[in-house]
Structure formats: C-alpha cells, structure tokens
Amino acid sequence: MADDQQQGRLEKVIQLRDQFYKRSKEVDQSGDFPHENFADLKNAGYLSWTVPKQYGGLGLNLYEYLQLQEELAKGDGATALSVGWHLGSVLELAENHSWEEAIFRDLCQRVVHEQALINRTATEKGTGSPTRGGIPETQASLQGGHWIINGRKAFASMAEALDYSLVTARIEQTDRIGIFLVDHNQEGVKVDPTWNSASMRGTRSDDLIFQNVSVSSEHFVEEEGQRVGPPAPKGWLLHIPACYLGIASAACRYAVDFASMYQPNSLPGPIKEVPEVQRKIGEMELALFQSREILYSVANRWVQQPDHRADMGAELAAVKHIATNQAVHVVDLAMKIVGARSLSRDCPLERYYRDVRSGLHNPPMDDAVIKMFAAKSLQGSQPTVTS
Ligand SMILES: Cc1cc2nc3c(=O)[nH]c(=O)nc-3n(C[C@H](O)[C@H](O)[C@H](O)COP(=O)(O)OP(=O)(O)OC[C@H]3O[C@@H](n4cnc5c(N)ncnc54)[C@H](O)[C@@H]3O)c2cc1C
User: N or C: which end of the chain has fewer CB within 10 A?
Assistant: First the structure.
C-alpha cells in the first residue's frame, strides 16, 4: 500500500501528466524539444527523485520510479522516455556504486541543486545499437593528463537540453571502451539536428558531436567490462516498457471513452454495446494487465532481492519484449475500435500509433531477446528421449 509520501509524489506526477497531455499534440507536430515540460519537471524537483537520500534526493527505487514513469507517459510519451533516461542513469549509478564516490556525489549535487540533466550517449551510426557489441568509433586519447574526445553519437535523446552526457569512446590504440562524463558547457560539444523521426518526435534524439573535447582524468568514470563481480543486468532500462505501457494505456482509455460516447444512427446505443467492440476492449485490457503484472513483479523482485540481480537479465529482457509488443497491439485495437477517425492528425491515437513503434527499436531488440531465451533453454537441456 502506498504511504503518504508515495501518494503525494503520485499526485504531483498526475498533475504533470495532465499538463503534458495538453501540450503533447503541439510537441509532436512542431517536433521541438518540450522545454516547457522539462521546466515543469525541474520545478517539481523530479530530476533528483532517484538521487540517493544521502545526497539530497528522494532515493526512489526501481519499482517506485517505474510507476511514475508509466503515469507520465500517459500524458506525453516523448517527455517520459526522455526524462526516463536521466532518472534511470542516476538510479543505475546509485545501485552499482561503479564510480568514485566523490565524482558521483558531485554529479548528484548538480542534479539536486540545479536539476542538471544527464543521458547516456552510446549509439553511433557505425555501431548501430550498442547492445549488439559494436565498438564505438568515438575516440579518447590521453594528452597531457586530459582525455581528448572526438566523435559523433546518434540518437542522443534530449541532446540540446543536456548538461552532461556519459559518452562511450574507444581508448586510442586499444580495444578498451571507456565511459566519460562530459560537461556540455565544455568547448567542442555540438548538436547536429538530424532527428526527423515520425515517432517520439519530442525526444529530439539528435546527433551529438564531440570535437577535441577535453575531459579531466577523474571524469573517465568507468571502463566497460572492468566492473568487479558478475556483469550487472540493467534494471533501470525497464523505464522503456513502462513508457510504452503508459502510451498503450492512454490509447485504451481514449478508445473506451470514444466507444461509450459514439452512437451512429444505425445503432440504438453507443458502440460500446456492440459485442465485437466489447471483445476488443477486453483484449486491450487483458494485454495491459499482462504487461503491467510482469513489469511490476519483475521490478519488485529487483528491489526485494538485490542478490539475484545478476541472474535477472532474461527476465528484464522478457518484460521489454512483452510490454512493447503488447503496446503496439493495444494501440492497433484502440484504432480499430475508433475506426477511420483514429487516423486523423487531430486524434491522439495516430500519435500513439507512431510513438509505440519506437519501443521495438529501443534495447534489447526482439530478436536478441528470443536468442537469449533459446540459449537459456538449450543450455539447460539434458536429452531424455532416445530413439
Ligand atoms: C526514440 C529513441 C530514443 C533513443 N535514445 C537513445 C539515447 O538517448 N541514447 C542512446 O545511446 N541511444 C538511444 N536510442 C538508440 C537505440 O537504443 C538504438 O541504439 C537505436 O535505435 C538503433 O537500433 P537499431 O536496432 O535500429 O540499429 P542497428 O543496430 O543498426 O540495427 C538495424 C538492424 O540491423 C540488424 N542488426 C544490426 N546489427 C546486428 C547484429 N549484430 N546481429 C543481428 N542483427 C543485427 C537488425 O536486424 C536491426 O533491426 C534511441 C532510439 C530511439 C528510437
């Protein structure tokens, strides 16, 4: 059961959600970054909600963070996905303790006091999705005690609004991959406005260019593959399914409201009384139930059983696969209920239709999830049948 603080946070986020919904059409149609939404999020202090309590944040755990993200996505998916990268990056650092504590504390201070915005920028045109193991073409070379970063990142959500990015770069002359905390006030950081997507337009996932950007040695914060202990699955990436679940819930709500109201003169009542419409409503609700149950049961396990996190990779991947594909299915059903009006530029369903497609191309991708499950099954298989 939610305590008073949780309830208070949820109410605040519901207010933000409703405000964002009013702006969502304009954000989508203009394709501009939703600066007003981010000003509201910063005023609410939302950017520091996953910062640990000892550094002045609210210390939200994964479960609490996902609930709020799902709610925000009902108002505006692009804003939710964007701020989800930020909150999740901070949460991951808080959980993993993978940085020098002083560097993490300094970053937390900037998030708490200035609502500084951060994101991981890993994708490049040359590597494609970094989850497939490509080595970044962005280079880091050590010169006079500083790292000099050169390269271009693609799909950098919130590029124009970021204060910091966590940039993956190949350490010159090696196969090592470093992660560098880059301050965007630094000379040589530029945005190339390449984002011209049909989907999640407000994320402004533009290219980021790093041209001879100088980074102090302590801001070489991590090296990939160098973490002590087993590789840590990324629970924070569940903000992706939470976001698309939120969008799908909004689509379902819209279709149900429409069905309750729309009454063509060929019928004695609204279309909600038509058995086929009821079947589709039931199918949407069933799909949402499945997604929500699996999302929050896995998130709960992540929170309650930290010792098992290292073994949760397949579970996390399954949640992402199920929730994002179900989201596409739910929006499809919602559009079938509403009919041709759902294709109107004035109907939010056509935006949801475009936005949920992005879920299929956020990590991990469907084929990688299926491959993971096949490998798991084959690994454990002991032939018992002989011919
Ligand atoms: C809205 C949105 C926001 C995003 N925000 C960010 C962000 O903030 N930061 C960030 O770093 N990234 C971000 N991304 C990028 C995202 O995480 C992916 O890296 C990106 O979408 C590219 O994935 P892809 O599968 O299309 O590309 P690719 O990896 O190029 O794959 C394209 C196709 O090629 C095939 N393929 C490629 N390589 C392999 C392989 N090794 N094995 C098998 N098949 C392969 C697959 O069929 C795949 O479908 C964002 C993406 C979106 C859509």
Answer: C
* Amino acid at the residue 79: T
Residues with Cβ within 8 Å of residue 66, at least 6 apart in sequence: 238, 239, 242, 295, 296, 299
Q: How many CB atoms lie within 10 A of CB 134?
A: 14
Instruction: Say which CATH topology domain 235-378 has.
Output: Butyryl-CoA Dehydrogenase, subunit A; domain 3 (1.20.140)
Distance 364 CA to ligand 1 centre (A): 9
Fold of 120-223: Butyryl-CoA Dehydrogenase, subunit A; domain 2 (2.40.110)
**CB 166 within 8 Å of CB 93:** no
Q: DSSP class of residue 65?
A: H
What are the tokens at 91? Answer: 């949460």
Which tokens is 248 given?
């799908």
DSSP percent split of the chain into helix, strand, coil, nearest 5: 60, 15, 25
Q: How far apart are CA 119 and CA 341, in angstroms?
A: 37
Taking the C-alpha atoms of residue 349 and residue 252, their distance in angstroms, rounded to an integer, is 9
Which residue is it, tokens 């108002």?
A: 75
What does the block give as tokens for 136?
């970044």
The pLDDT tens digits of the residues spanning 25-82 come to 999 999 999 999 999 999 999 999 999 999 999 999 999 999 999 999 999 999 999 9
d(Cα 356, Cα 340) in Å, to the nearest integer?
A: 19
C-alpha 88 – ligand 1 centre gap (Å) = 19
Calculated CA dihedral for residues 277, 283, 285, 290, nearest 10 degrees: 180
Characterize the bridge pairing of strands 164-171 and 177-183: antiparallel
Residues touching ligand 1 (Cβ under 6 Å) are 85, 119-123, 128-129, 132, 155-157, 200, 203, 205, 358, 361-363, 365
Looking only at the bridges linking them, the beta strands covering 164-171 and 118-121 are: parallel
Q: Report the CATH number of the 4-116 domain.
A: 1.10.540.10
* Residue 351 near residue 199, CB atoms below 8 Å: no
pTM, 2 dp: 0.96
